[in-house]
């Protein structure tokens, strides 16, 4: 098998520039509270082994480690993992393409968390399905998966019909957003202080995501509007919980 990584985004798209812009947008302010809620939602036992899949600079896996869990972060980008090791030392980190099984020497996990729309980056929908297959294989029997992401319902509610171009600005960051009606890939250009970065994410309906999770072998799928377990409303991000 080729070692070449294929992804909707450039390998280091979610590196330092993206982190800085997301910081300006206030995306990371509730991390500690969110991780406490996740631990409760999943009924994590003390010291449980948890994988943060698509960990970015380690904000969540770092918080989980500080809460006493055996936390491991994995990301496709060496640059991003390097940033995680600097910003959030403590967890173990792994550079890996999750469309492929984890290395055999990596012990299975009690739980996997996939947070803040860190899913939908495969070149095709089939690649996204491979990621779910990898997660299922990486969990112990009865292990839990939690995904937190924007779904099509939220996209329609916030951006309007697919194909609508939206421009908005917050705290000095300009966002140019467009969801392709055919591929349902969200294209976002962030611009701040004369620098622009582009990221792409494939979006799904909640029903499609549940079907894909079940196809990977998960069961007992539940859908919520937050880590506190409240029923999802159109403006809520989708929180999906499933059992391996």
Describe this structure as you would to a colleague.
By secondary structure, the chain is of the alpha/beta class. The chain has one domain: Vaccinia Virus protein VP39 (Rossmann fold), CATH 3.40.50.150. Helices cover 29% and strands 30% of the residues. The protein has helices spanning 16-24, 31-41, 59-66, 78-87, 125-138, 152-159, 206-215; strands at 49-53, 70-75, 92-95, 109-114, 139-149, 165-170, 173-179, 185-192, 195-202, 219-224, 238-243. Strand 8 and strand 9 form a beta hairpin. It is globular, with a radius of gyration of 17 Å.
In short:
β7 and β8 (185-192) form a beta hairpin. The chain has 244 residues and is an alpha/beta fold. The chain is built from seven helices and eleven strands.
Break the fold down into its secondary structure elements and pairings:
Layout: H1 16-24, H2 31-41, E1 49-53, H3 59-66, E2 70-75, H4 78-87, E3 92-95, E4 109-114, H5 125-138, E5 139-149, H6 152-159, E6 165-170, E7 173-179, E8 185-192, E9 195-202, H7 206-215, E10 219-224, E11 238-243
Parallel strand pairs: 1-2, 1-4, 2-3, 4-5
Antiparallel strand pairs: 5-11, 6-7, 7-8, 8-9, 10-11
